[in-house]
């Protein structure tokens, strides 16, 4: 095998810390190095008193980390006894950290100072405590309490004040926990640090190819004597105006600049006076605001939009983004007139010399734009047959009003309420099998965009026909990208050559180019290409197409012409406005929003195979403008609804855990169904085995789906249930962070945990409670931020959220009067509480049943398994909704298949029928694409790695083997799909990828086997994997060498029963993959 790096092996906590610190050393080594003449207690000392065991744990269990801080000089004598206590030393260090921050004019960012504020005129310390009168505690800092305990006091007596002071002030300390986890005690929070740059081998310097950006030359003549003066003259006016946030020494590389594709999606069209969709660039576009080609000011302004870096304006290369105005990676430069005027008034501007000749080209571009008929072009390249406005009723409903959750059934819409009756759609539906096929293909959209750009952008800007073709090919690739894929500026800049207009005017044709001029040319070219995509391609797509993903086609992007989408969406929105929402006057809506934390939500429509689905966006942060006392306005991004409801979600999660414990303790009298597959598996293993032992094994299955369950929940009843469920009068909210390494990449996660207000504990105890079976090799960081929330505040926020949820549709506000808001972070848990209460009140017969029964519920899907037919019929009668008694052997339920005879559980792959695997992927083109392949495949395998599918006490051994085999077949299909995007991958690399995937599958199952029974050996898992990849790769013609290797590996002997392995890979277990395209 080639020397590729393994990606699945877990990274230890020590290795993780070395990603952030250049020096990671145990505390014992530090103190023994600094005090060589002092004897420290050792772990193997048999006569050591018990009271010194804590000191040994302290020396061996703490890691001392630093970046560039020098180790203390060895002290060749015993340190003098400390003159101050450990408490005084700790507070002295805190005081010094605050004073260092005051010198740097910034707040100290050290865990020891968190929870304290420096005394000032606004903060007055009422009394002098042990910390002194200079700083005051606003949050309890448990790290300070830990450092003041007796063990640290004993260490102080051994190492002295000087070394203790140095350790706390200049180093970061991490304390060891169980299962290779640590928590941070001192230093800058690890969650705020960036990983150290990974050292790379320095490649040999490549000779610069002057054909990249210069005029081609065959034999360069010697430079003239006056070349230096001529070149200086040409560059003297190119010095950019100083901009406050510019930092050219830290300019972003083209590979780090990604085009903001998120702006493409869900755009609303522009309308004319007749309320018809108006094609073409928006009115606020630079071409429509500065449209006089003979006006020099108009042309120069467009030049500043195109090349902002050359004029000292805000740009994506050297400027930072104001996070108070946008959450996007880069700012929107559609309108920047105020910035241009402000810069002109302060410093003035002068057009750089090499851009002077472009004024005529820009004038020509304005004329071309004014002559371009975008409406005719989009209808020519992206035709929609019979879109003429006639109306007649359409038999099949194309709008599915099933509210927002993915698991709900469609709600019938009557003709009287809002029938979708459009003859154009009826005509198209005869030729199209689903609504998603009404979109314009990628080929059509690409042809329209490329034709528009070729008509508007003058040929001078491209330099040559070849450059034009290169950029057009990248535009085509940009349009074909899937939903979450990225596209960088670096990709487009490849293979562009011979840009004549980039050279200075005074430079002769065959003159040799210096390095600084090459850099300047690349800089200008990068600005031009970014402007083409950000200000031409993306606005054209937004103004002509409604761009969205779809549940059926997964990540494939669909392009609907705006006039077609208007025909589809208007009836759906009208029905929503009359059935679920109530119109709210603008004055009242403004008054409501001004006096509460919660903002308004937005709504969009998601195309489906047989209709559209309304989706609420409660994560979006809207701009809010406030008027100050002096009359000025202040615009900022306000918090999203989900972030405001975050503390409420943490509190309800705490109550849910307590509620589940109460159910387990009193399961006989409160047989409430589990809320997830994990809880289902944990609670019902023994119960399912009891059902299986019944003789004869005749089982009855009743499946019920609550129709539009989120929309039919009673708001008043739900609030009454939540008020009853809240057990505490006040809750404590504690924030912390977790840093771990996933697939060789450090990741940070921030959490908030709720608990009763009286349960404030030390962070070490809190961290030990957080460690579970899955948490390993992680670093926990206390953010020393606590919040108190009373029960009345929780109920007040919930009341506002449920009964007064404002939705903005178009320019009007509406109040949701039916059901609960969807897209909210609370939706699922509120639904679970509501139906849990329903089960306890309405399904009481389960406590007095004659047979063995299991009730399972996942959100709104109920499954009742019993040995008594009367119980099943009674359950259906109580639910009195669409339900059925199933007489088949294979029973589908929530993405799984239950065997009605053995109760074995397998995954349901029928949801992939007709779906191309490529549409489910997100391909990484920019950074480390080879590593990204494994990362994506591992993530998908981890999501399917539930212990329920691999437990031999829950499933038969045969079913466990089939689950492993089918999971690896899907992984093999994903592998082929990813490899097909790679430019001719080596056969050895493909073998390495296959080996890594099989090793990772073994790692997943071995990890699950700690808590369940799974005796499948690694050899057996790999044997199944080789056959899975053989099945997938054999249908493709590019894996000849890999297939030969797979056949050799599949012949290896295994310890497992070969007969049951062969039975697991039988053809009958492959038929579910026949309809999957890859």
Automatic annotation (TrEMBL):
The record's Gene Ontology cellular component field reads:
chromosome, telomeric region; telomerase catalytic core complex
Q: What class of enzyme is it?
A: transferase
The record's annotation in Pfam families points to: Telomerase_RBD, TEN_TERT, TERT_C
Q: Where in the cell is it found?
A: Nucleus; Chromosome, Telomere
**Entry keyword set:** Chromosome, Magnesium, Metal-binding, Nucleotidyltransferase, Nucleus, RNA-directed DNA polymerase, Telomere, Transferase
Tell me one GO biological process term.
telomere maintenance via telomerase
Q: Which reaction does it catalyse?
A: DNA(n) + a 2'-deoxyribonucleoside 5'-triphosphate = DNA(n+1) + diphosphate
EC no. given is: 2.7.7.49
Q: Single GO molecular-function term?
A: telomeric DNA binding
Q: Has UniProt tagged this entry with the keyword Signal?
A: no
Q: Residue ranges of the Reverse transcriptase domain?
A: 587-917
What function does the entry list? Answer: Telomerase is a ribonucleoprotein enzyme essential for the replication of chromosome termini in most eukaryotes. It elongates telomeres. It is a reverse transcriptase that adds simple sequence repeats to chromosome ends by copying a template sequence within the RNA component of the enzyme.
UniProt similarity note = Belongs to the reverse transcriptase family. Telomerase subfamily.
List the PANTHER family: TELOMERASE REVERSE TRANSCRIPTASE
Q: What protein am I looking at?
A: Telomerase reverse transcriptase
């Amino acid at each position: 095998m080639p020397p590729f790096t393994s990606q699945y092996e877990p990274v230890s906590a020590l290795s993780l810390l070395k990603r952030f610190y250049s020096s990671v050393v145990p505390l014992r080594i530090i103190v023994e190095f600094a005090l060589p003449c002092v004897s420290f207690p050792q772990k193997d000392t048999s006569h050591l008193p018990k009271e010194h065991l804590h000191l040994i744990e302290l020396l061996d269990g703490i890691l001392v980390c630093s970046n560039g801080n020098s180790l203390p000089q060895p002290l060749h004598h015993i340190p003098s006894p400390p003159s101050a206590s450990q408490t005084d030393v700790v507070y002295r260090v805190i005081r010094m950290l605050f004073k260092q921050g005051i010198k740097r004019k910034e707040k100290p960012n050290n865990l020891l100072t968190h929870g304290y504020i420096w005394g000032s005129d606004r903060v007055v310390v009422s009394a002098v405590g042990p910390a002194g009168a200079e700083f005051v505690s606003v949050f309890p800092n448990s790290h300070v309490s830990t450092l003041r305990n007796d063990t640290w006091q004993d260490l102080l007596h051994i190492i002295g004040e000087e070394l203790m002071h140095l350790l706390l002030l200049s180093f970061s300390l991490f304390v060891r926990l169980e299962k290779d986890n640590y928590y941070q005690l001192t230093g800058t929070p690890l969650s705020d640090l960036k990983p150290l740059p990974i050292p790379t081998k320095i490649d040999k310097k490549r000779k610069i190819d002057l054909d990249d950006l210069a005029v081609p030359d065959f034999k360069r003549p010697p430079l003239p004597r006056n070349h230096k003066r001529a070149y200086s003259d040409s560059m003297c006016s190119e010095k950019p105006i100083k901009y406050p946030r510019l930092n050219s020494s830290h300019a972003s590389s083209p590979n780090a600049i990604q085009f903001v594709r998120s702006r493409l999606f869900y755009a609303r069209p522009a309308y004319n006076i007749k309320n018809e969709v108006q094609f073409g660039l928006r009115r606020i576009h630079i071409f429509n605001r500065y449209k006089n080609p003979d006006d020099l000011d108009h042309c120069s302004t467009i030049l500043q939009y195109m090349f902002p870096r050359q004029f000292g304006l805000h740009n994506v290369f050297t400027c930072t983004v104001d996070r108070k105005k946008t959450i996007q990676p880069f700012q929107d430069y559609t309108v920047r007139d105020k910035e241009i005027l402000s810069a002109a008034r302060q410093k003035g501007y002068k057009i750089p010399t090499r851009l002077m000749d472009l004024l005529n080209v820009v004038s020509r571009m304005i004329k071309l734009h004014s002559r371009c008929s975008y409406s005719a072009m989009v209808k020519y390249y992206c035709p929609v047959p019979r879109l003429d406005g006639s109306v007649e009723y359409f038999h099949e409903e194309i709008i599915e009003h099933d509210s927002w959750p993915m698991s709900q059934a469609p709600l019938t819409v009557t003709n009287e309420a809002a029938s979708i009756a459009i003859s154009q759609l009826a005509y198209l539906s005869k030729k199209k099998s689903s609504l998603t096929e009404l979109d314009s293909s990628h080929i059509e959209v690409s042809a329209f965009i490329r034709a528009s750009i070729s008509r508007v952008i003058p040929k001078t800007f491209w330099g040559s026909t070849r450059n034009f073709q290169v950029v057009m090919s990248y535009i085509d690739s940009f349009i074909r990208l899937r939903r979450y894929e990225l596209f960088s500026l670096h990709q487009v800049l490849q293979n562009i050559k011979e840009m004549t207009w980039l050279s200075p005017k005074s430079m002769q044709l065959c003159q040799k180019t210096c390095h600084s001029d090459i850099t300047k040319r690349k800089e200008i070219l990068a600005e031009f290409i970014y402007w083409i995509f950000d200000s031409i391609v993306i606005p054209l797509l937004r103004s002509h197409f409604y761009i969205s993903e779809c549940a059926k086609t997964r990540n494939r992007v669909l392009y609907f012409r705006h006039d077609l989408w208007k025909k589809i969406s208007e009836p759906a929105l009208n029905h929503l406005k009359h059935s679920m929402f109530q119109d709210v006057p603008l004055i009242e809506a403004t008054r409501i929003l001004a006096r509460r934390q919660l903002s308004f939500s937005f709504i969009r429509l998601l195309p489906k195979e047989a209709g559209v689905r309304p989706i609420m966006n409660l994560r979006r942060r809207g701009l809010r403008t406030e008027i100050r006392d002096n009359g000025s306005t202040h615009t900022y991004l306000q918090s999203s609804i989900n972030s405001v409801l975050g503390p409420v979600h943490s509190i309800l999660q705490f109550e849910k855990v307590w509620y589940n414990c109460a159910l387990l303790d009193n399961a006989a009298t409160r047989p409430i169904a589990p809320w997830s597959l994990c809880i289902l598996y944990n609670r019902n293993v023994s119960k399912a085995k009891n059902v299986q032992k019944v003789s004869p094994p005749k089982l009855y299955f009743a499946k019920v789906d609550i129709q539009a369950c989120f929309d039919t929940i009673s708001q008043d009843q739900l609030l009454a249930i939540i008020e009853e469920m809240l057990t505490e009068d006040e809750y404590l909210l504690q924030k912390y962070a977790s840093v771990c390494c996933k697939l060789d990449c450090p990741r940070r996660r921030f959490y908030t945990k709720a608990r009763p207000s009286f349960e404030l504990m030390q962070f070490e105890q809190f961290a030990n409670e957080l460690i579970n079976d899955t948490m390993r090799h992680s670093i926990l960081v206390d953010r020393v931020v606590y919040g108190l929330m009373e029960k009345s505040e929780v109920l007040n926020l919930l009341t506002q959220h449920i009964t007064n949820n404002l939705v903005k549709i178009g320019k009007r506000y509406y109040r949701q009067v039916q059901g609960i808001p969807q897209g909210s972070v609370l939706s699922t848990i509120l639904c679970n509480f509501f139906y849990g209460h329903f089960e306890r009140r309405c399904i009481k017969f389960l406590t007095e049943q004659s047979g063995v029964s299991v009730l399972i519920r996942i959100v709104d899907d109920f499954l009742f398994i019993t040995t008594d037919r009367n119980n099943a019929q009674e359950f259906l009668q109580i639910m009195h909704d669409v339900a059925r008694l199933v007489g088949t052997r294979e029973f589908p339920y929530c993405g799984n298949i239950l065997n009605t005879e053995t109760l074995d559980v397998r995954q349901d792959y029928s949801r992939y029928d007709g779906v191309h695997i490529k549409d489910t992927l997100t391909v990484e083109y920019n950074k480390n694409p080879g590593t990204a392949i494994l990362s994506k495949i591992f993530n998908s395998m981890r999501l399917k790695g539930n212990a329920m599918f691999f437990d031999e006490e829950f499933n038969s051994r045969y079913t466990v083997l089939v689950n492993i085999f089918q999971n690896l077949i899907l992984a093999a299909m994903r592998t082929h799909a990813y490899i097909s995007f790679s430019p001719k991958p080596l056969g050895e690399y493909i073998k390495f990828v296959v080996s890594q995937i099989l090793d990772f599958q073994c790692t997943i199952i071995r990890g699950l086997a700690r808590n369940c029974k799974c005796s499948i050996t690694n050899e057996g898992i790999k044997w199944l994997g080789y056959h899975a990849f053989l099945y997938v790769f054999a249908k493709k013609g590019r894996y000849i060498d890999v297939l030969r290797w797979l056949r050799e590996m599949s012949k290896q002997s295994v310890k497992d029963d070969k007969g049951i392995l062969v039975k697991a890979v039988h053809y009958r277990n492959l038929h579910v993959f026949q309809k999957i395209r890859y």
